[in-house]
Amino acid sequence: MRVAIIPARGGSKRIPRKNIKTFAGLPIIAHSIKAAQESGLFDRIVVTTDDEEIADVARRYGAEIPFMRPKELSDDHTATIPVIAHAIQTLQNDSVIEYACCIYATAPFIRAEDIRDAHNALITHNKQYAFPVTTFPFPIQRGVKRDKEGNIEMFYPEHFATRSQDLEEAYHDVGQFYWGTAEAWLEGRAIFSDAATTIVLPRHLVQDIDTPEDWTRAELMHKVLQEL
């Protein structure tokens, strides 16, 4: 069985009620639920939450809430892997799970085709995880750090005179979803490792949403994409 597991706790502080805040006319979590539905890959789409209001919204858009997430897995410091492992353990009381896809609740640019492509990569390359990445818009080798007085220092001073086109391209996780085998999630294997494979997304479909500024930027990006 393949399941989509959407973590959505209720205690967001930087953007209050972030997981159900309206984005492009829908509670933002609804975009993740819809993409999972449209992918056609999942036997179950489950939201793991500690919050009754989030649970009600998720049900309204077609997700299951077969359990409420325990308090010890709902604080600011709980990592993703234990949350997904707990969901798998709980759901496997009913049936055997082979693959689980963690889909973040605040990923309004997520697309069903990308979920399918990453699943295909997982199977084709016989890996334990698969997830999307994108390129950095500026060479990370030319990055600088800045102190409180405004002074700067290069992270890689040896590349001060290196041409941008001669530097290796760098990628980062886009923060939308992670496919994994049930075994990998349950054993807590590292995602950013040789256990994983990736697909590449264009930068205009990527925006992490952690702050109000991120939210505003994502809304503007979404509006432009809808007008194209």
UniProtKB/TrEMBL annotation:
Give the transmembrane region(s).
Answer: none
Q: Which organism is it from?
A: Sulfuricurvum kujiense (strain ATCC BAA-921 / DSM 16994 / JCM 11577 / YK-1)
Could you give a GO molecular-function term held by this entry? N-acylneuraminate cytidylyltransferase activity
Hey, what's the signal peptide range on this chain?
Answer: none
**Official protein name in the record:** Pseudaminic acid cytidylyltransferase
User: What top-tier enzyme class does this entry carry?
Assistant: transferase
EC number from the UniProt entry: 2.7.7.81
Q: Which Pfam families match?
A: CTP_transf_3
